[in-house]
Design goal:
homodimer, alpha/beta, Rossmann fold, N-(1-d-carboxylethyl)-l-norvaline Dehydrogenase, domain 2, 2 domains, two-stranded antiparallel ribbon, NAD(P)-bd_dom_sf (chains A, B)
Chain lengths: ~325, ~325
């Protein structure tokens, strides 16, 4: 029997970064009560007392009366039928560690753009394996959507991905607002990987900008990133997907071009000569692409897809390769 | 018998705008002598005397000794075997009017991104019909390439398109430099239309930016522009083209995102409330997309491709439609 999400299912968000904060804001436009797991006590108390997240999207005001705030993951999970994961992939396992509540009868939504390190699997795969959640109880919410613009209520498009379009529609109704348009898809694999890969390509763009390459070259680099993304997906998991759609190409574009892109900013520092360590110190947020670059290279060892851009980023970030020499060599590989 | 370009064929450029100026600079990196037809006497005299174009890319210096400058189109055409057309499409017919020299035994290269108005055909088609030049003697040079970055010698990629890859390679050798990488294609139809359509989409992007839409929305709009472009080409002239390649998607990206894009700038003024007429007055250069918007709507009357973005731009520019209402309506059509 297929799992059907109940229209009245209560939602909870796990995480307190900028994207988690934006998702709570979005959900509260439609739901009377939203659970929110915030592990950090100071942040939790601040949200409870002032109705704002002191660290991210500080201008977004919440009515604490509509929030079920807790630093107990079990409590938050117990009271929700839909659990939205929005912590950086690199911290996902430690974030979920305190959980003893079973997830097998819940619907789990990943809003995470990354691979689970060590396991080298996507978040959907991890939730399935580790928590025995069947794939028809797992969904994805994907951009192109920088949280900062959600805070500003600028029109953005989210794609909801579930095994069945029916569940995707019910979930979509919970996040559709005046400033959020919702699209639907069933391509969990493709959209998870697209959102992982785009962060790597945004780092490549940042590196090129930092080295002084101009707009003409960036357009070539990003087009080739789109091709590389499309090639990876069609060679590893063929499907009738339209990779020009927002959840694939659009997500790559916003991450590569937007001033809000932390992955591009991280790459920019590398291109300007910062060491990987100093660039990380300068960033107050996690650049998912840094971890993704290593995971994808490991995953691709078996698959053998031709990925010159992801390889360049890996060589620069993990192998001490010179950014200028590596990008220079890459220029001969682009179409 | 197929026409083969002679490796030693002399080149001449027709036009003195920024792209024509950049092409002369590029050709001079490989050729000892380049013809240059400049109709305007003041500009011609300035180039002859000072070795710079007084109006565009003023920092680019030419050795007048390597230039065969003339305000006689016949003279320039007579002395060249390869004639590169680089005038705005809307002025192409008047630019070529003084020509009495036959072109039938020459190789004609179009570096123009537009439709010939009234005739509603591409430049390649016009050259073929009006000057009896067979299609195997017609080529295209396409970006993503803003002339301003050629002036700065920032690495850029050009795609050379000819009926045969052999001619494309010989032509490519004439424009390959340290800062110009060259790709090849035989898709004259597709690349001509891509370079026409992308200007319309860049105006759409400008309008949206002028209205206050953010990066998240732009990524969706541009992805949908790429889909619309791809749909137009596959429905009107199916072929095995890879529309992710630089000459299609890359050209759309640089025109949509670059600060050097005059089409985006033109749209921006419209979005901010300028009338079409005032926006045109403010621009010192032709925004090709303005003319393209009308031509494509006329061409599409018979073809009936679904083109909501091009339609929106047409309605705003030619039908007095409100930019905010029109973009608002469009948002419901995007994926």
């Amino acid at each position: 029997m297929a799992y059907n999400i109940d229209r009245n299912a209560r939602c909870a968000v796990v995480g307190h970064g900028s994207w988690a904060t934006a998702l709570v804001k979005i959900l509260l436009e439609n739901e009377r009560n939203v659970g929110w797991y915030i592990r950090n006590r100071d942040v939790l108390e601040h949200v409870r007392k002032h109705g704002t997240n002191p660290r991210y999207l500080r201008d977004v005001r919440f009515d604490p009366g509509s929030l079920h705030l807790s630093d107990s993951l079990d409590e938050v999970a117990r009271d929700a039928e839909i659990v939205v994961l929005a912590a950086p992939s690199v911290y996902l396992k430690t974030t979920l560690e305190p959980l003893t509540e079973p997830l097998g009868d819940k619907f789990i939504v990943s809003a995470i753009k990354g691979i689970v390190p060590d396991d080298l699997i996507t978040v959907a795969e991890y939730v399935n394996r580790r928590y025995d959640v069947p794939f028809d109880q797992i969904g994805i919410v994907s951009g192109p959507c920088h949280a900062e613009e959600v805070a500003l209520e600028r029109l953005s498009y989210l794609t909801v991905v579930c095994k069945t379009l029916e569940n995707s529609r019910i979930l979509g109704d919970k996040i559709r607002t005046d400033y959020i348009n919702v699209g639907h898809s069933t391509d969990i694999y493709g959209i998870e990987y697209a959102s992982v890969l785009k962060n790597i390509y945004a780092i490549a763009v940042g590196i090129a900008v930092g080295l002084g390459y101009g707009d003409n070259f960036l357009a070539v680099l990003i087009s080739n990133g789109a091709m590389e993304m499309s090639r990876f997906m069609s060679q590893t998991y063929p499907s009738n997907r339209n990779t020009f759609a927002s959840a694939y190409l659009g997500d790559l574009l916003v991450t590569s071009y937007s001033q809000f892109s932390r992955n591009r900013r991280f790459g920019l520092m590398i291109g300007k000569g910062y060491s990987v360590h100093s660039a990380q110190m300068e960033m107050s947020m996690v650049a998912e692409g840094y971890y993704a670059a290593e995971c994808i290279m490991k995953i691709n060892r078996q698959r053998g897809v031709d990925m010159p851009i992801a390889r360049m980023v890996y060589d620069v970030l993990y192998d001490g390769a010179s950014p200028s020499v590596s990008v220079g060599r890459l220029t001969g590989r682009l179409l």
